[in-house]
Each structure stands twice: as structure tokens, then as C-alpha cells.
Design brief:
single chain, 166 residues, mainly alpha, Ferritin, 5 helices
Length: 166
């Protein structure tokens, strides 16, 4: 009889095989796939700055309105506070102008709007990597991408939990 560890490992392998094939299933819907072609590292960093401000504004508004959301908002704010100086250092090293990020938009209290803003932040990181033209900058933003992706996963789980409660 196989051990529980062997069964779990087999289940993971089966899941990973299915996940690896999943992009092939999406080939029938090319209109749903849109990527931004960034012209410069400055454009990438400005977009990330704008998206991060948008996420922060939406999440802060949600945290003020929903009990229990403050811990997640604080965690995201902490990550963002660490990312900003990293991007500032990249701008300085790459001789780019300071950020031109605008003020946050009026907050939308929906989790769907937060998810959309966070997804756009993740996309800005991922799609912007080729435009950086600097291995060190790619390494920094790739680490930030991991944080943003983790936060997107938490938001997805939060939405799923809310749907189950409804």
C-alpha cells in the first residue's frame, strides 16, 4: 500500500501535468490575450508606480470598510514600501527621471476592482521585464513580481471566500 506521501506526490504530479497543459486549452481565445509592449525602462517603472498607487488606494478604502482586512492591507503596504526604494535606486542607476505616478483614483470598494488593479500591477511587472535591458533591474522587478503575484492569489482566495459566503 502506498504511503500518504507517495499519494500526495502523485496527486501533485497529476495537477502539475494538467496545469502545464492548461495554456494549450486557451489557444482558442486569442482575443483575450493582450500584452503591453513597453518602449523603455522608464515607462515600465512609471506604470508600476501608477498601478501600485491604485492598488494601495483601493485596498486602504476596503480596509477602512471591512473588518479584518487591515492585516492584509498592512502586509501589502509593507511590501510596497520596500519596493519603492528599490525602484528609485533602479531609476538612479539607469539614469532615469523620477517617477511621474499620479494621485490615486477615487477608491472603489469592490474586491473585483481591487483584483483588476492588482492583476494590472502583476502584468506591468511581467510584461515590462524585456524593456528593462538590465539584468540587475530584471532581478529586482522579478522579486517584486513574486510579491505582487502572491498578493493577487490572496485577493483571489478572498473573493472566492466571499462568494462561498453569499
Amino acid at each position: 500500500m502506498p504511503s500518504a506521501l507517495a499519494l500526495a506526490s502523485t496527486g501533485r504530479r497529476r495537477f502539475l501535468r494538467g496545469a502545464a497543459a492548461a495554456p494549450l486549452v486557451c489557444l482558442g481565445r486569442p482575443a483575450a490575450v493582450r500584452a503591453t509592449e513597453y518602449a523603455s525602462a522608464s515607462e515600465v517603472l512609471d506604470t508600476i508606480d501608477r498601478r501600485e498607487v491604485e492598488v494601495a488606494g483601493r485596498l486602504a478604502a476596503i480596509a477602512r470598510a471591512i473588518a479584518g482586512a487591515q492585516a492584509f492591507a498592512d502586509s501589502v503596504a509593507s511590501d510596497q514600501a520596500g519596493h519603492r526604494p528599490d525602484r528609485d535606486k533602479l531609476r538612479h542607476r539607469l539614469k532615469l527621471p523620477a517617477s511621474s505616478a499620479p494621485a490615486p483614483p477615487p477608491p472603489d470598494l469592490s474586491l473585483a476592482a481591487l483584483r483588476e488593479a492588482q492583476q494590472e500591477l502583476v502584468h506591468a511587472h511581467a510584461e515590462g521585464l524585456p524593456a528593462l535591458g538590465d539584468a540587475g533591474a530584471v532581478a529586482v522587478l522579478a522579486r517584486h513580481l513574486v510579491d505582487a503575484s502572491r498578493q493577487l492569489t490572496v485577493i483571489d482566495l478572498w473573493i472566492e471566500a466571499e462568494e462561498l459566503r453569499a
